[in-house]
């Protein structure tokens, strides 16, 4: 059995425990800093929306040996500015995206690209998306996200309780804000694949949170009938029992996503893979963190504010104080007995040392006449 498996068994049995719930202020601070950076990046830089959301034209040029810089220089000259986006698709083609605000017609751009790049017009695939259609797609994506959040909250409130639903919803918003903020800072294009990635990571984060909450629910069942541990301690025990499982699931899920992002998009240059792979990579990492360090500590904090859990915490504190007092009294009794034993032992030892053995008298007159006749 490996050390990691042994650690998981010890965590499940309660032999080893990490106090995630007790350090919730630390996790809240870390999440707040990351979320603040994401919000600042989102408000200052903004999202780079793809053509599917803001409208425009996309020209895919097929020509061996054509570089991104050559296509970028040519399209900048045609439209008269440098707002066009040019990237390699990874299969020997160049993708040129022109904003819908440009007044140059699609036919004019195709003819000019064919002439300047010395490529047949048939090798240039043009797609035009109107701004109204892109706006409609954006609204539908936001509507789908809102419906997803509402359904998730309703399900958790029914299956568990409203505090668990609220904690899971906060964790989902936490993951979404961080992922969107990273997209804004990095400058990756938001495409329909990105939206799919967002919904995927929200589902994964929810799955991980529900697994932890289910264990917490089992550990806190009838918790008011005992006075050995508080709700936070029971919730933290449940979190430790699922910790190794959550980490294993996250690592296994991140490996193929990392291959898509760093190998497919970074090394091989398949830029179209970056849209969904970056959302998945950031979202999966944030989801694993929020399930452990945000959702469960927040749930414990909400539960500890209820009168029942406050009374339980008071009873637990009273019992521990009584146990500590009894242990102290027992310790004093043991010390007194030990001290008495030491005194008796010292007295016995001192008596043995002070005792003098009297010499045996010699019978010098034995066998001699007494002098009397």
CATH class of the largest domain: Mainly Alpha
- The gross shape turns out to be elongated
Distance between the termini: 105 Å
Task: Give the helix/strand class.
Answer: alpha+beta
Biggest sheet statistics: 4 strands, antiparallel
The helical percent reads 55-70%
Q: Give the strand order, joined by hyphens, for the main sheet.
A: 3-4-2-5
> In CATH terms, what is the fold-level topology of the largest domain?
Multidrug efflux transporter AcrB transmembrane fold
Low-confidence stretches: 348-357, 361-366
Instruction: Supply the CATH architecture of the largest domain.
Output: Up-down Bundle
**Beta-strand content bin:** 5-15%
User: How much is the radius of gyration in Å?
Assistant: 38 Å
Compute the number of strand runs: 6
Number of domains: 2
* The CATH superfamily title of the largest domain: Multidrug efflux transporter AcrB transmembrane domain
Instruction: Give the averaged pLDDT, no decimals.
Output: 77
Count helical runs.
12
**H/E element string?**
HHEHEHEEHEHHEHHHHH
């Amino acid at each position: 059995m490996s050390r990691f498996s042994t650690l998981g068994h010890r965590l499940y049995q309660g032999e080893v425990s990490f106090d995630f719930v007790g350090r919730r202020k630390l996790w809240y601070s870390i999440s707040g800093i990351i979320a603040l950076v994401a919000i600042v990046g989102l408000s200052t830089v903004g999202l780079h929306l793809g053509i599917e959301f803001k409208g425009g034209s996309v020209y895919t040029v097929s020509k061996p040996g054509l570089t991104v810089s050559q296509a970028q220089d040519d399209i900048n000259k045609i439209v008269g500015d440098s707002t066009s986006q040019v990237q390699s698709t990874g299969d020997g083609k160049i993708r040129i995206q022109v904003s819908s605000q440009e007044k140059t017609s699609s036919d004019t751009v195709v003819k000019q690209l064919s002439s300047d790049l010395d490529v047949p017009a048939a090798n240039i695939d043009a797609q035009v998306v109107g701004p109204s259609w892109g706006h409609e797609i954006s609204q539908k994506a936001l509507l789908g996200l809102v419906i997803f959040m509402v359904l998730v909250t309703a399900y958790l409130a029914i299956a568990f309780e409203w505090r668990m639903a609220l904690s899971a919803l906060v964790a989902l918003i936490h993951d979404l804000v961080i992922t969107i903020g990273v997209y804004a800072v990095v400058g990756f294009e938001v495409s329909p694949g990105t939206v799919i990635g967002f919904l995927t990571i929200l589902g994964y984060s929810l799955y991980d949170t529900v697994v932890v909450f289910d264990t917490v629910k089992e550990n806190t069942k009838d918790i008011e009938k005992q006075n050995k541990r508080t709700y936070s301690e029971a919730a933290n025990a449940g979190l430790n029992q699922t910790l190794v499982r959550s980490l294993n699931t996250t690592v296994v899920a991140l490996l193929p996503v990392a291959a898509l992002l760093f190998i497919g998009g970074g090394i091989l240059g398949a830029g179209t893979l970056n849209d969904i792979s970056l959302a998945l990579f950031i979202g999966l990492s944030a989801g694993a963190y929020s399930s452990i360090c945000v959702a469960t500590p927040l749930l414990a904090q909400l539960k500890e504010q209820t009168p029942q859990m406050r009374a339980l915490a008071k009873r637990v504190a009273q019992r521990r104080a009584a146990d500590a007092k009894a242990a102290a009294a027992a310790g004093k009794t043991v010390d007194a007995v030990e001290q008495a034993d030491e005194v008796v032992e010292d007295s016995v030892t001192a008596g043995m040392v002070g005792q003098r053995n009297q010499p045996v008298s010699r019978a010098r007159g034995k066998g001699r006449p007494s002098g009397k006749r």
